[in-house]
Specification:
Elements lengths: L2 H23 L5 H10 L1 H9 L4 H31 L7
């Protein structure tokens, strides 16, 4: 299972980074989750061809981290909306 260290160490950092950069910096709220879903599903296709692993677990990880990215994007969007409604300054 060579994908386990990658999905436990690298992908959480990638998820947080892509989600925050796409929402805070570029204000593209759905770009982060869609991008992560597409990128994380490349191993879903490639790993079963190289190893004798199933695709279900890898796809499960991709869906899980896509959901986490969606939650981060939604939270940032909601905070910005609340701050704008009370007259607070926008984030830089």
């Amino acid at each position: 299972m060579p994908e386990i260290p990658i999905y436990l160490i690298v992908v959480p950092v990638l998820t947080i980074t892509v989600s925050l950069i796409s929402t805070v910096r570029f204000e593209k709220y759905f770009f982060g989750p869609v991008f992560l879903f597409v990128v994380l599903n490349f191993p879903t296709i490639a790993m079963p061809m190289m190893n004798r692993t199933g695709w279900e677990s890898i796809f499960g990880w991709a869906v899980f981290y896509t959901f986490i990215s969606f939650v981060i994007s939604y939270t940032v969007w909601k905070v910005r909306k609340i701050r704008a409604s009370i007259g607070g300054n926008e984030w830089p």
